[in-house]
Amino acid sequence: MPLDFLFVDGDHSWAGVEGDWRDWTPHLVRGGLVALHDSRPMPDRGMLDSVRFTREVALNDTRFAVVETVDSLTVLERR
Predict the structure, then answer these.
(1) Which of 3, 34, 43, 46 is deepest in the core (most CB within 10 A)?
(2) Does 10 score more than 80 pLDDT?
């Protein structure tokens, strides 16, 4: 099931985001986009596990490159 776009916004726990990342990103085609909601710190929220996961895992995944960041959203493109 090839995907062009994936939007991850659900369980903000480490395990939840990790499961979504592990289960769904392999289906993204080259040039496909993944948008991670609540992946950046915001002044009105504490440090969510989804922010930590993005910093520690998603941004270091060599299959992806950051395309854009807006508010709490990070958009990455599959290389």
Answers:
(1) 34
(2) yes
